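Q&A log
Question type: sequence-to-structure
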Amino acid sequence: MDEMNKRSVSNIIVAVILVIGVIGAALILTNGIVQIKASKTNIVVTGSAKQQITSDLIVWTGSFNAQSEKLQDAYSMLEDSRNKVSDYLISKGIGKDEFVFSSISTMINYVMNDYGNNTNKIDNYDLSQTVTISSSEIDKITEISRNATELLNVGVAFQSNQPQYFYTKLADLKVTMLAEATKDARKRAEMIAENAGNKLGDLKYADMGVMQITPLYSNEVDDYGINDTSSLEKEITAVVHCQFEISK
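Response status: OK
Response body:
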């Protein structure tokens, strides 16, 4: 009889342990469900802001070269061309301290044989140099860039490159644009929450997207961002991804 009582007590203890385990598992499961539901009380939206800007800095570069069978003659010809370029720019109202000449690049061209291969015989020396202007006088430098090939008339083998246009206050503007994009994100989130019968809570997380600086009326977008320098008038677009709390 004592043996049977011992077995009964053991069975009761095992049953109690199993019940406790089941209750604990139920609590864990319930807690997990609550956490899953809680994670669904956030909303993620994308906000954006756009603004038109006008470039306030122009950077223009032109290049010229000289060729001769003798290196010294090529240097002399290039120096003469450089002086003519300098005189031309000064005549257009550009100060001597406003343009910069690069160092001279030297390329050796060799005579080709009948099979189109280079030989060891030097054909000529090709020396080249560039001139660069950085200025806030957009219209003046743009006009010079269009007309600089006039130097061909005085014997300068000159090539004018397309000007680049920049906006120097971009760093400050980005801060303002991101603030506007965040406001736009909040408005979108409020609309979604209200239509779902909820209330919008605090901002939990914000992720800044890339800036897109494009010519006006352009729909071009790039995952790494665009920084257009070909247009005087541009449009800047800022994007942010925001996560807000929502409640009933």
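Response note: Confidence is low (pLDDT under 50) at residues 14-19, 21-39.
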